[in-house]
Amino acid sequence: MSDEAKDFINGLPEEVSYKIxxxxxxxxxxxxxxxxxxxxxxTEIWEFRTLYNKTAYRLFAFWDKAEETLVIATHGIIKKxxxxxxxxxxxxxxxxxxxxxxK
Length: 103
Hints:
It is a single chain. The chain is α+β, with helices and mostly antiparallel strands. It is 38% helix and 29% strand. Strands 1-2-3-4 form a four-stranded antiparallel sheet, sandwiched between helices. The longest helix is centred in the last third of the chain and has 16 residues, at 86-101. The relative contact order is 0.18.
């Protein structure tokens, strides 16, 4: 997980960060649930999705198949609209490209 993703989670209220980490563990444990982890259309980016008190929290991630399908969380947002902002997807894609370039 990137420092930016950790800072995002750690900057949230404790009960929210607990639920986000809990959901990540569920997915890491093998749970397949589109409500928790969903691929964004036409990208290589995935969303960890957490809903807490009617607020949608999103962490963006991608797969590194060479590292035993490790998922790298890039950054997070509090989602305010139905659509995922294009600038956030572009940011995750840029972090993904930089990650593989520096590997």
